[in-house]
Specification:
Shape: globular
Order of helices and strands: EHEEEEEHEHHEEHH
Helix content: 25-40%
Number of helices: 6
Structural class: alpha/beta
Strand order of the largest sheet: 5-2-1-6-7-9-8
Radius of gyration: 16 Å
């Protein structure tokens, strides 16, 4: 059986720590494969200098039948551009009920395009959101902003920049729905959250 793809959308200066847990553990899943996507196929360099090759450009990814999830990783680049082409891609994915996850500054991208107006969501604090969205008319979801590490609601997963572990847990719990698998995910999360040795 063909594995479904989980697309990690990377821009220049992407935050590698925000992707680490999610890419590693999705990659371990029998039913899924990690792929990268961006606005073009040029390799993208992370904040720390890690170079990632891009499997697909937004323009060429047309067939969504084998797509399981789109994951937007934080980057300073989200502030530099509206990325309407990415918004169109997210809109197409949600149109066929494909979940979308975003962490750190990628949450403000979703907000400015109106994706979070009617779902619970979070980001890098309310003040961060207010500063980033003060001139944006597309965002009206203030009542849905939630001060949590990660939030999963209405087909969208959002997380703040310190929540890479919680972000990965929500991604995995969305992809793996059987009770045994979810128990394993929660056990894994507890181990990495609390450490191997209790104090």
């Amino acid at each position: 059986m063909q594995k479904k793809e989980v697309l990690f959308l990377l821009l220049d200066h992407w935050a590698e720590w925000e992707a680490g847990y999610a890419t590693a553990w999705v990659g371990f899943c029998d039913d899924y494969v990690v792929k990268t996507i961006s606005i073009d196929k040029k390799s993208k360099v992370s904040i720390g200098g890690m170079r990632a090759e891009i499997d697909y450009s937004i323009e060429e990814y047309q067939n969504l039948d084998n797509l399981a999830m789109v994951v937007l990783i934080g980057s300073g680049s989200w502030r530099d551009n509206r990325y309407d082409d990415i918004a169109d891609f997210v809109r197409k994915a949600r149109g066929v009920d494909i979940p979308v996850a975003a962490i750190c500054a990628a949450t403000t991208f979703l907000a400015k395009h109106g994706f979070l107006n009617n779902v619970k969501h979070t980001s890098n604090g309310l003040e961060f959101f207010k500063e980033r969205l003060k001139d944006e008319e597309g965002y009206t979801g203030w009542e849905y902003f939630t001060s949590l590490q990660a939030v999963n609601d209405g087909g969208f997963i959002t997380a703040n920049d310190t929540a890479s572990l919680e972000f990965a847990r929500e991604i995995l719990l969305t992809l793996i729905t059987d009770a045994e698998g979810q128990e394993g995910i929660n056990g894994w999360y507890g181990r990495y959250k609390n450490g191997l040795f209790e104090k």
